[in-house]
Amino acid sequence: MVNHAARELHLKVVYYGPGLGGKTTNLEYIHAKTRPERRGKLISLTTESERTLFFDLLPMDLGKYRGYDVRIHLCTVPGQIALDETRKLVLRHVDGIVFVVDSQKGRLDQNVESIRNLYDNLRLQGDDPDRMPLVVQYNKRDLPDVHPVAELAEALGVPAEVVQIEASAVKGRGVLDTLRSITKACLRLVEDPDRMPGGRSPSILPGKRASLYRGLAGERVDVPSIPRPSRVPRLDE
After folding, report:
1. Cα dist. 94→80, 163, 221, 231, 232 in Å?
2. Which one of 15, 145, 183, 211 counts the least CB within 10 Å of its CB?
3. What are the tens digits of pLDDT across the range 168-189?
4. What is the pTM of this model?
5. Is 235 a member of any domain?
């Protein structure tokens, strides 16, 4: 979204991943470490098993992008697969994804299931996962019994060109680096804000969900169901 009057460019970043993998901890740390006048209120929607958090942030260390302040809207999704409809709602109009991997041994299947679910939901709303700005955060690296990063990257099909960050969200290690990296990845797709129409656009992603919306009126069209792949597709395939 572009606000020409305030000279602000708004980007939506969603933290995705398996339940209890550290998505909420990431946002809580970012919110706590940000000056109150530069952040919005931390909103929490509590489900039976997990919280969905969101707030907006005006990072100080990013500076201006072509004369515009960059305001980031940060959201988490519930990790439980049973709450997929909520995840789809949160994912609407997303501009960038942080996929938070639970590095603990015994959680590999949940990580794989979650990234497959992410790709499915992106395609269902008309986005190409190969072109979506993405940062992969390997969380819980402070724990003793974790998978090697290379093993996790291979199992998840993460290509080498995607930014990958080792982190311990509970200790704050790698959290702000992850935020800076996904913001920069989003800005690489943004054209000159002065030339963009004011108000909300479907996303910064080229194609702009053409399979879901037609014309300015946003007419809904049917999208065929997508079969779950037998393996995790690579983002560069």
Report:
1. 20, 18, 19, 24, 21
2. 145
3. 999 999 999 999 999 999 999 9
4. 0.84
5. no
